[in-house]
Amino acid sequence: MTTPLTRIAAVLLGVAFLSVGTASAEAATDAGSYGAHVAACAQLVGFDGTHNPGMHKGITGWGPDHVCNH
């Protein structure tokens, strides 16, 4: 026999589990977009000491609207 509190806890745990899975999928998509952007910039303008992915602090400082220019 389960109590209502146990059922509520199980539902909340399930919701938390599903939301973590969604966040991971979104992060993977963003990482793929960032990687494609870095590859395109390397081919279009190249990288040097003043223009490279590190200047944006990697994916955390990057936005999909960033334009490759030197």
Automatic annotation (TrEMBL):
Species in which this protein is naturally found: Antribacter soli
Name of protein: Uncharacterized protein
N-terminal signal peptide: 1-27
Keywords (A to Z) from UniProt: Signal
